[in-house]
Design brief:
Blueprint (H helix, E strand, L loop, with lengths): L2 H8 L3 H7 L17 E2 L11 E5 L6 E6 L2 E8 L2 E5 L2 E5 L4 E4 L5 E3 L7 E7 L5 H7 L4 H10 L8 E4 L5 H15 L5 H17 L5 E4 L4 H16 L5 H7 L4 H12 L3 H19 L4 H7 L5 H12 L3 H8 L8
Parallel strand pairs: 1-3
Antiparallel strand pairs: 2-9, 3-8, 4-7, 4-9, 5-6, 5-8, 7-10, 10-11
Helix pairs in contact: 3-6, 5-6, 7-9, 7-10, 8-9
């Protein structure tokens, strides 16, 4: 990080000095005008601005609260520990935490060397980043959820990014630009944040915590759904492209979490459908093979006999009155 910027971020604010002088409770008047502890973006955003940054206040236990905006927390130095949903999430330098408006959380007392930056952003700030990502993904789904008025489920994403210099450079540039004022600042920062999200999509293995699922669960569920609906033409490269991962990385992840390779999962689904067609329809075997994705009839026959110990026609004859189909 630029030395001048780091020195600015280390300075003790008047609020922090009050805590050092003995104040034992957060000064809520700084953060909200209501009885409930919902931090109000309008107390920090200048008129017509979509985003700003504020360093997390140190030297005090920050009580449970929520926001009426989307918060992105970036740790520059030291550590920050957030408590949410009964879990302690300790962030380290380079880590990035995204929280929607409905997350309730508290923050452990930070020391002088713990530098965390809070991005305070209105949902509209993410219009350009969403457009830049285009295809459906975990980050886009999170951001789109913040735009739905009837979507009140707390959601957060925590990325552990130590060593991802291209992302930290972008984050620090945005912090520096908002520390001062410049023309077109919001638009520049919207595109910068969009680049951050695009880089994150290339490092989805760094997604350490998801409020609803972890990253591997997301990949597995997407894989199983894809095979279930597209078994005739499904290929592993489709999953790899969707999650911006290499074929080998996705293949290992699927094997680790299911005990099967992608090809084995696909074959299980295809033969499940083949058995259904054999028992419940009068379709010719050749047509069934084509319907489940096997253009090579000989290969289908060999695989079927190796799996079930009989030909498809024999299976149909023996099981056409069965109520259940063995996979």
């Amino acid at each position: 990080m630029d030395q001048w910027l780091f020195e600015q971020l280390q300075k003790i604010t008047p609020e922090e000095q009050n805590y050092l002088d003995g104040d034992e409770q957060v000064n809520r008047d700084i953060y909200t005008k209501t009885k409930g502890f919902e931090i109000d973006s309008q107390l920090f955003l200048k008129q017509k601005k979509l985003v700003t940054v504020r360093r997390h206040s140190r030297f005090i236990e920050f009580p449970e609260h929520r926001h009426n905006y989307i918060e992105i927390v970036y740790v520059c130095a030291g550590t920050l520990t957030h408590y949410m949903e009964g879990k302690a999430l300790t962030m380290r330098p380079g880590d990035l935490l995204l929280m929607n408006q409905h997350v309730k959380h508290s923050v452990k007392r930070a020391a002088i060397g713990d530098i965390g930056i809070n991005f305070i952003a209105l949902p509209e700030f993410f219009d350009i980043p969403i457009q830049m990502m285009r295809r459906q993904n975990v980050i886009a789904d999170f951001l789109l959820g913040t735009l739905r008025q009837n979507h009140t489920v707390p959601q957060y994403l925590l990325f552990r990014l130590n060593g991802q210099r291209h992302i930290s450079n972008l984050m620090e540039n945005m912090i520096a630009s908002m520390a001062g004022e410049s023309e077109n600042e919001d638009v520049i920062n919207q595109y910068s944040m969009g680049l951050v999200f695009l880089y994150l999509l290339n490092h989805m293995d760094k997604l350490a915590h998801n409020s609803s699922q972890n990253y591997e669960d997301v990949v597995i569920q997407a894989t199983l759904k894809y095979i279930d609906t597209q078994y005739r033409t499904a290929v592993l490269s489709h999953i790899a492209e969707d999650f911006n991962q290499s074929l080998s990385s996705v293949s290992r992840l699927i094997k680790k979490n299911t005990g099967y390779t992608f090809v084995e999962l696909l074959m299980r689904k295809r033969f499940q459908k083949a058995l259904m067609f054999l028992v419940e329809t009068e379709l010719p075997v050749e047509k069934i093979a084509a319907n489940i994705g096997y253009e090579n009839q000989s290969y289908f026959y060999r695989q079927f006999k190796a799996r079930y110990g009989m030909t498809p026609s024999q299976y149909r004859q023996e099981h056409k009155h069965d109520a259940q189909i063995r996979i």
